[in-house]
What does this fold into?
Amino acid sequence: MTAPSPSDRGQLATPHPSECAGDPALLEATIAAGFEVRVQHQPIDIQSEIMPVTRNPNVGAIVNFLGVVRHCGDFDDVVALELEHYPGMTEQSFSSIVEEAIARWRLEAVKIVHRVGRVALGDAVVLVVVAAPHRRAAFDACEFLMDFLKAHAPLWKKEIRRDGALRWVEAKTRDEQSMLRWG
It folds into this structure.
């Protein structure tokens, strides 16, 4: 059984629920669509991103991935990341991979929220939320989406060290190898 295409289920780049204040119909449509990709400078409000997904009565499993800035990357004294992207291109890339996930698994909701700009140590960089009637589809789709983001997302990041030194983060062979398993 093939899942409905995103065009049948609603537009992927839906507004954030906080942008729908004063318009209950828009808020309901945004939540009901269930598919959203967003790139933003502001911190990710994890609870407000996940809670609307729990309102869907067809959802039996919600799997989340939260990526945070850690102190050891290519350097051992990272205090922040600086992320850059091409506006429009990044969102389109995210939307395309969500469409691929919808084609592979029966999903009720997918949300990708990715930060750009300077992100401090311990702060969230990316949130992926996948909801499905059953756990296996939610787990697999979430892992698929993260493998894609690590290997192919048009985002570029620099690690910022405690002493202020900067270094671009190189692509990792292991990330590309992880993506290969999905065909």
Remarks:
- The chain has six helices and eight strands.
- Residues 30 and 45 are 17 Å apart (CA to CA).
- The beta strands are 35-40, 61-68, 78-85, 109-115, 117-120, 124-132, 155-161, 166-168.
- The two ends are 19 Å apart (CA to CA).
